Amino acid sequence: MWRLLLLLVGTAQAEDLLYLYNWNNYIADQTIERFEAECACHVVQDYYSDNEEMLAKLAAGATGYDLVIPTGNATESLIRQHALRPLDKRLLPDLKNIDAAYMNTVFDPGNQYSVPYAYTLTLIGYNPNKIRELGLPVDSWAVIFEPRYLEKIKGRVTVLDSQRELLAAALKYLGYSANDTEEAHWKQARDLIIRAKPYWAAFNASSYIKELAAGNIWLVHGYSSDIYQADQDAQTSGRAFRIKAILPREGAVLALDSMVLHKSGRRPDLAHRFINFMLDGKNSAELTNLIGSGNPNRRALPHIRPEIAQNPAIFPASGEKLEMLKDLDRHQRRILSRIWIEIKLR
Amino acid sequence: MTERCREKYLVAGPPFLFLLLMLAVPCVITLIASMSYPGEFGGLAPFISKDTHALHGLTLETYLFFFSDFIYTEIFIKSILMAAGTTLICLMMAYPVALLIARSPKKRRNMLVLLVILPFASNFLIRIYAWMIILGPQSALSRLVNGILHMFGQAPVHLLFSSAAVLTALVYVHLPFMVLPLYTNLEKHDPALLDAAQDLGANAWQRFCQVTFPLSLPGVFAGSALVFIPVLGVFAIPEILGGTGDMMIGNLIKEQFLVARDWPFGATLSVMLTTILLLIAWLTSKAGAIHA
Fold it and tell me: Which residue out of A75, A82, A330, A343 would a mutagenesis test of the B interface target, given it has the greatest number of B Cβ atoms within 10 Å?
């Protein structure tokens, strides 16, 4: 009888479930498998492909997620909506592994709710063979926005199909902060974008990876991890060129994704275990080696492949002008949407 | 109330009530949402708030915003033109098909109708993605078109991500909605009428213009409404196949909810769209009634 009961308890534990709401392809399979073995639980993942999608789904009442991995501005929004559960730092002894530069952000002072997971930069990706041939400077956003450069590569350039990212790049080029909300500056950025638009092949969110690797597109405004992916693809398909990324001297956007506990989660205990597990250098490095994302974990560096760890477009030198995007208020969101429509239609 | 009358209500009542609820309730919710303030993080600001400084209550600010700026009206006009173009092309393509089916031997008609609706057997999105391949730069069609253009010394064109690609897919998807009502109408025509016209000396073209086409007008109106109305609200097709300028009302509404998190303005755009559609549906039913 007792043995039967123990057996029942045993199976109940084996069916402990951790619900993780994560970005597409944002954790290595072997990491998940090791965590499952370690905690004798099962990780159930749901995926999103942008923050707005995740916020919209949670706002519409999706529940049951123990962990979410939002970007800074979305983290801030979730905190202010009181949607998150404060962390119990006694359960996170390895929090000390995180580089202080990524702690205590404006989104979550004191890291009451969030633990840095990984980051990406929004920068310039290019095909060095073609760009060198044409003699274009790629160390400035000018190459994306100035017709005098663009006319040499008309139709071979794509920019991100993201209101905030494209505006941020234009603002940076104009010498403003990526978080500038002055309407006059936004209009300047809009005019800059509209002037450059005829030279761009597309506003693109994902297929630019493929196009870069295939050699159809030579210059992109894109995410560091996507550009890394394009380089990998170009190598595996035996292309005669590589794909490089560069941080423009005017600065760029840094998107820091953090692990947070959603209030509706039923297993904060497992969620804390998962966070501490991911704070381990080796586990954290697996993600970096998989997708070429930046890693805020100091202990991860020895486990990261050198060509990634030494790439300044993935691990930027300190002192670069990097900014994290802040959430916009409702009025600003409406004005930006209005400007975006004008950009698309003109 | 007689027994039969009560029976009628018992049978027709529940579905009618269902339709009414599913139409009226969402419309009222949309209308109220359109007159709210946007919430700080998306959604709607509360109607009642203890904090008097916080935005709350009802307002017409989204409507003022809509009309203060021509760009939104411009998108509406562009979408209406796109829908009208799709409807016209569908009509011109569907009419001969419907006529052919209606005039073919009775045994074969059902088979032919089945062929018209066969594309519905595969998923809508898959059919749209298939057009991406057909129109893509490496496709046989693209190469053929650009090869011909090259012979005449013209610059190559991109078929994909263009208004033409959107229009092509819109016609492709909605063609059956035009064929079916036209066929249903044409099938009922009495062939004796055409014989009579012929006996009176009308040639084939006159018979079509003066007998078949006028009689088929209710079918034309029904088919046009079935094509025009969904096309005006479509968002997936311009999103997948359109270029940057091919934004339609549907895309604009989607963007307000999912990107700008501006529910009241999204609701306002939806109210505008519904109003236009109801107006058009009413006009077509009027026009249909005159010719019925």
Answer: A330
B140-154 exposure pattern, b = at least 16 Cβ within 10 A, e = fewer: eebeeebeeeeeeee
Spatial distance between the Cα atoms of A116 and A288, rounded to a whole number of angstroms: 13
Residue A54 DSSP code? H
A78: closest CA of chain B, how far (Å): 9
Query: Which chain A residues are closer than 8 Å to B137 by Cβ?
Result: 216
Are A341 and B40 in contact (CB < 8 Å)?
no
Interface residue ranges in chain A relative to chain B, Cβ cutoff 8 Å: 52-53, 55-56, 59, 77, 80-81, 163, 197, 202-203, 216, 329-330, 333-334, 336-338, 340-342, 344-345
3-class secondary structure, A176: coil
- Look over chain B and give the mean of its residue pLDDT values, rounded to a whole number: 90
Of A12-16, B49-53, B117-121, where does mean pLDDT reach its minimum?
A12-16
Nearest to B71 among A77, A197, A342 (CB): A342
Structure token digits, residue A248? 């423009």
- For residue B63, the tally of other CB atoms under 10 A from its CB is 16
Q: Position A256: which residue type?
A: L
Q: What's the pLDDT tens digit per position in B142-175?
A: 999 999 999 998 888 888 888 999 999 999 999 9
The C-alpha atoms of residue A56 and residue A77 are separated, in whole angstroms, by 11
Cβ proximity of A223 and A238 under 8 Å: no
Lowest mean pLDDT among A202-216, A219-233, B47-61: B47-61
Question: ipTM of the assembly?
Answer: 0.81
For residue A158, count other CB atoms closer than 10 A to its CB: 25
Show the domains of chain A with their CATH numbers.
2-117+255-313 (3.40.190.10), 121-253+325-345 (3.40.190.10)
Q: Please say if the pLDDT value at position A4 is more than 90.
A: no
A35-44, B37-46, B254-263: which range is least confident on average? B37-46
Residue pLDDT, tens place only, A262-312: 999 999 999 999 999 999 999 999 999 999 999 999 999 999 999 999 999
* Residue-level pLDDT at B289: 75
- Both tokens assigned to B190: 């009495």
- Given a cut of 70, whether residue A19 has pLDDT beyond it is yes
Note whether B258 contacts A80, CB cutoff 8 Å. Answer: no
Give the fold, CATH level 3, of B67-122+161-290: MetI-like fold (1.10.3720)
Cβ contacts of residue A280 below 8 Å, gap of 6+?
Answer: A94, A97, A299
Q: Cα dihedral sign for A114, A116, A122, A125? A: negative
Backbone torsions φ then ψ of A271, nearest 5 degrees: -65, -45
